[in-house]
Amino acid sequence: MTKAELVAAMAKDAGVTKAEAGRALASFAENVAKELKKSGRLGLVGFGTFSVVKRKARTGRNPQTGDKIQIKAKKVVKFKAGKGLADKV
To answer: Fewer CB within 10 A of the end CB, N or C, for the chain?
Structure first.
């Protein structure tokens, strides 16, 4: 499903315009990012939990040349599905 298809489905389900649904989706994404930056964790009961974890620096391999490369440490976002979501899929 693409973003446009998700916006259309949200608009249909909520009985609002696609523009309103698009703004709601953008607001959701922006607020999730703000909260993850601020506290590093966001839980939505029945849906799941977003969290920020630190990935250590490591040695990788360039798939084209086979040379070893150094991959820098960075923060990544993880998502763990909640029971309600897991039961639906």
So the answer is: C
In order along its 89 residues, the chain shows pLDDT tens digits of 999 999 999 999 999 999 999 999 999 999 999 999 999 999 999 999 999 999 999 999 999 999 999 999 999 999 999 999 999 99
Helix/strand/coil percent split, the chain, to 5: 45, 30, 25
Give the CA-trace dihedral at 1, 41, 33, 86, to 10 degrees. 10
Let me know whether 12 and 27 are in one domain: yes
Looking at the fold, whether 9 and 30 belong to one and the same domain comes out as: yes
pTM of this structure: 0.76
13 and 2, same structural domain? yes
The CATH number covering residue 80 comes to 4.10.520.10
